[in-house]
Design a protein that fits this description.
Blueprint: E1 9-13, H1 18-29, E2 33-38, H2 41-52, E3 58-62, H3 68-82, E4 87-90, H4 101-128, E5 132-137, H5 150-170, E6 175-182, H6 191-198, H7 200-208, H8 218-228, E7 240-243
Parallel strand pairs: 1-2, 1-4, 2-3, 4-5, 5-6, 6-7
C-alpha cells in the first residue's frame, strides 16, 4: 500500500528504543525524515545509526520531556532540522506504578503533560505545513482497571479522552489525532524484558493471558502508528486502537 509518507517530516518523542524506535524506523522505511529525542546520548547514537540506514534525514537530541522549556526548544529545533513538521508521535512513559506522590507525578509529568505541551509546540508547525497528524501512545491499561499501576492506568485513560478532544478541535486545521493502546510489548531493557528476568511468575501469567501465547513486538505497534499518520488513513480521527493480540479479550 502506498502510504504517501516519503519526504514527510516526523517527530517521535522517546524514540531511542522500544516502541518509539520501532515507530521511528517504520516512518524512515517509508521515506519520512525523522527526529527522535531521549534522555541518553548513547541510546540516541545507536538509534541514529539504525535510522540513517534508510537514507533519510535524521535528527536526534537529548531531551527530558518532563522539562517544559527543553521540550518546546526540542520541538522547534527538530522541525527546523527536518525542514518542517507533518507528524508528531507522543511516545514516552514515566510508568508511574505506585499509588503515591511519586507514581502520580511521574505519570502526569511524562505521560500526560509532556504530550499536551509537545502538542502546543508542534500544532502550529504542522498547521503551517498544511496539516498532518498526531499519534499518541496510550495503553490498554487506560481501557480497563489497572490495580498494579493505578496512576499509569488513570493517566493513560486521560490520554485517550484528550485524543478525542484534540481530534474535534483540530479537524478545521486539517490535523488528525489518533491514539494507540498497546498491550504487553516486550523489547530489550523494557518492562516485560525485566519481568522475564526478575519476576517470572508475573511474566508467565501475563503471557498466558494473551490468546496468541506471546508478548507483542514494537514493530506491531509501529505498523499501526505509520498507517494512522499516513494518507491511507485520511478519514480516521479521534480513534483509539488496541494493539494487544487479544489480551483484553480475557
Amino acid at each position: 500500500m502506498e502510504l504517501g509518507l516519503k519526504g514527510r517530516n516526523v517527530i517521535v518523542t522517546g524514540g531511542s528504543r522500544g516502541i518509539g524506535l520501532g515507530i521511528a524506523k517504520g516512518f524512515a522505511a517509508e521515506g519520512a525524515n525523522v527526529s527522535i529525542c531521549a534522555r541518553g546520548q548513547e541510546s540516541l547514537d545507536a538509534a541514529r545509526g539504525e535510522l540513517e540506514k534508510a537514507g533519510v534525514t535524521v535528527h536526534t537530541a537529548i531531551c527530558d520531556v518532563a522539562d517544559p522549556e527543553r521540550l518546546e526548544v526540542y520541538i522547534q529545533e527538530a522541525a527546523a532540522a527536518l525542514g518542517g513538521l507533518n507528524v508528531l508521535v507522543n511516545n514516552p512513559s514515566g510508568f508511574g506504578r505506585g499509588d503515591d506522590e511519586e507514581g502520580w507525578k511521574k505519570s502526569i509529568d511524562v505521560d500526560l503533560m509532556a504530550l499536551v505541551r509537545a502538542g502546543w509546540a508542534a500544532i502550529p508547525l504542522i498547521e503551517k505545513s498544511g496539516g498532518g497528524s498526531l499519534v499518541h501512545i496510550s495503553s490498554i491499561s487506560g481501557l480497563q482497571n489497572s490495580t498494579r499501576t493505578p496512576p499509569y492506568g488513570a493517566v493513560k485513560a486521560a490520554v485517550i479522552q484528550y485524543t478525542t478532544t484534540q481530534a474535534a478541535a483540530l479537524a478545521e486545521k486539517n490535523i488528525r489525532v489518533n491514539c494507540i493502546a498497546p498491550g504487553s510489548i516486550e523489547f530489550p531493557g523494557g518492562v516485560w524484558d525485566q519481568a522475564r528476568q526478575h519476576n517470572r511468575p508475573l511474566y508467565d501469567s501475563i503471557q498466558a493471558s494473551i490468546p496468541f501465547g506471546r508478548m507483542g513486538a514494537p514493530e506491531e505497534v509501529a505498523n499501526l502508528a505509520v498507517f494512522l499518520a499516513s494518507d491511507a488513513a485520511s478519514w480516521i480521527t479521534g480513534q483509539t486502537v488496541a494493539v494487544d493480540g487479544g489480551q483484553m479479550l480475557r
